[in-house]
Amino acid sequence: MDASTQGTEPTGSFAAAAWDRIAPIMAEIEALPLLQRLSDGTLPPEVFRHYILQDAVYLKHYARCLAIVAAKAPDNAQVLRFLGSAQKAITVEQGLHAGFLTQFGITSADVTSAEPSPAGFAYTNFLLATAYHSSYAVALSSILPCFWIYWHVGEAIKNRPAIEGNAFQAWINTYGDPQFAAGAREVIALTDIAARAASPVERAQMTDVFVRASQYEWMFWDSAWRLETWPV
């Protein structure tokens, strides 16, 4: 994909370097069966139901991570800008979930009682621990892959020929939507601003958590494809 699709910042920025670091992970993400079959409309309904229920559980925790990160921002301008971009993403995802929960027969009680999968549990706890215990710059870097990778994947699928009657078209439209893209771009820009003020040690930590969160993104989708539950 070209730089405009990826949302990559100018060469030399922290975000551009971090995105380059996860190129092998992105190749694995793009090859995931769940995404391939979501794209062509052949994803089994039970897999998508499992995925969207886990995603609803994830979003509850992710929203709290965003609030913690915002509270750590160094000035009011960044607090407001971050909250605005985070609100865009959450509003878009909540609207998507509302439609799919109804379409696939998932009730609010199902969401309330749902247990996170092992992969989802590990991912959200990683994000929460990073948000609580790390600096603003490091915490921000850990939540960035969720924005950026979903934008990247949504754009890639959106640019393929549409499949008539694809039950998952709303998912494709959501993450290929300019509103979601705008929120992702803003978080990328904020991460670069934070990186410019960070020490070399802190920048290394930012890269580490960015890579780890990207690995968790792969694990989350892969676990949904396998209908992962707790083994014991």
UniProtKB/TrEMBL annotation:
<dbReference type="InterPro" id="IPR050967">
    <property type="entry name" value="Thiamine_Salvage_TenA"/>
</dbReference>
<dbReference type="InterPro" id="IPR016084">
    <property type="entry name" value="Haem_Oase-like_multi-hlx"/>
</dbReference>
<comment type="function">
    <text>Catalyzes an amino-pyrimidine hydrolysis reaction at the C5' of the pyrimidine moiety of thiamine compounds, a reaction that is part of a thiamine salvage pathway.</text>
</comment>
<comment type="pathway">
    <text>Cofactor biosynthesis; thiamine diphosphate biosynthesis.</text>
</comment>
<dbReference type="GO" id="GO:0005829">
    <property type="term" value="C:cytosol"/>
</dbReference>
<keyword id="KW-0784">Thiamine biosynthesis</keyword>
<protein>
    <recommendedName>
        <fullName>Aminopyrimidine aminohydrolase</fullName>
        <ecNumber>3.5.99.2</ecNumber>
    </recommendedName>
</protein>
<dbReference type="InterPro" id="IPR027574">
    <property type="entry name" value="Thiaminase_II"/>
</dbReference>
<dbReference type="GO" id="GO:0009228">
    <property type="term" value="P:thiamine biosynthetic process"/>
</dbReference>
<dbReference type="GO" id="GO:0009229">
    <property type="term" value="P:thiamine diphosphate biosynthetic process"/>
</dbReference>
<dbReference type="GO" id="GO:0050334">
    <property type="term" value="F:thiaminase activity"/>
</dbReference>
<dbReference type="InterPro" id="IPR004305">
    <property type="entry name" value="Thiaminase-2/PQQC"/>
</dbReference>
<keyword id="KW-0378">Hydrolase</keyword>
<dbReference type="Pfam" id="PF03070">
    <property type="entry name" value="TENA_THI-4"/>
</dbReference>
<comment type="similarity">
    <text>Belongs to the TenA family.</text>
</comment>
<feature type="domain" description="Thiaminase-2/PQQC">
    <location>
        <begin position="19"/>
        <end position="226"/>
    </location>
</feature>
